[in-house]
Amino acid sequence: MAGDASLSSSEFPDPGHDHDACRDQAIDRAERLCAGQGARLTPQRREVLELLLAAHQALGAYEIMEGIDWGGRKPAPVVVYRALDFLMELGLVHRLASVNAYVACGHAGEAHGARFLICTDCRTVAEVTSPGIADALVGEAERRGFAVGQLTIEISGVCPHCRGAADG
Amino acid sequence: MAGDASLSSSEFPDPGHDHDACRDQAIDRAERLCAGQGARLTPQRREVLELLLAAHQALGAYEIMEGIDWGGRKPAPVVVYRALDFLMELGLVHRLASVNAYVACGHAGEAHGARFLICTDCRTVAEVTSPGIADALVGEAERRGFAVGQLTIEISGVCPHCRGAADG
DNA sequence: CATATAATGTAATATCATAACAATTCAAGA
DNA sequence: TCTTGAATTGTTATGATATTACATTATATG
Fold first, then answer.
1. Domain extent for A24
2. Which run of H or of E encompasses B154?
3. Is the N or the C terminus of chain A less surrounded, counting Cβ atoms within 10 Å?
4. Phi, psi torsion values for B30, nearest 5 degrees
5. Amino acid B104 CA to nucleotide D9 C1' distance, rounded Å
6. Residue B7 has what pLDDT?
7. Residue B18 φ/ψ, nearest 5 degrees
């Protein structure tokens, strides 16, 4: 069973929280992860990751392009996609299939069994990890003789903050 | 021959099963559903649905286009998308976000809590309905104050038949 | 330095999906 | 039957997302 304390790391980020600190922390983790794997977090890749971390939202690839400014020029699409591929490979970024968008991962490395709550209003994304449900899904599929590869669980709806703003 | 009847509605369809019968059955259901709602299952829409039913697979919109032949001509993309929109509205077809493809629904109307097992080999799709897990996901999201809209659960992997073919 | 591998630059193109608007068909009432 | 409004279809163009291909540059290593 999921307790109460376990919710803290997977809640929707409070709109008033310290973005900078949480971004720096995540970048730190990303750098350690890369170092550990001999992967290079180049300036381009880092910029894409920072943009996603700062947004706390799902961004489309072309939105990311727009968000990047290299002395007045925008990167070509393929540049962004390459950075995203790299970051996804390491589990630092996830693709949200249901909205064709990308989001920075809060718990890099432990991509296992994660699901995403996507606010259709503010597009904020909460990443929730609860092995129980993921295991149930995987187990059930395997009981049917299905060899599970990738698991996609995405829940669209309205987050607590937007709900509050709208009708509270 | 096909295995236990009890599993038939949620198992992967046996490659040797009677496609025609199962398609006709589904078309029948679709027609009743439309009649009940005052919706019109026009020839175009019906053709798209039949194509998907016959395929037992997820097909991209442009694959559907290719699969349709109107006296030597192919329908425009928008024609296919319109048919798909109609069919999805009625729950006769589902969109699989993780593979940008569409699949005919085995249990029209009861779209509730369905998840999809998608074979990356033969692209066959099994639709599995188990309210328990869906409810757990929705319940947990709502406990976090999230107002659930749409639920996307898609599992990619290798189906029993392809597994058998590949490694014994 | 030489070399191989990884990363980037650039242009073109493939793939998926929708917008806009005209023409036609259909159902239902006058 | 005629008319009228709504639904459906036809057609063209365009928007949005993603990849291919190939040349160039950077980086690590012997």
1. 15-167
2. strand B147-158
3. N
4. -60, -40
5. 23
6. 43
7. -85, 90
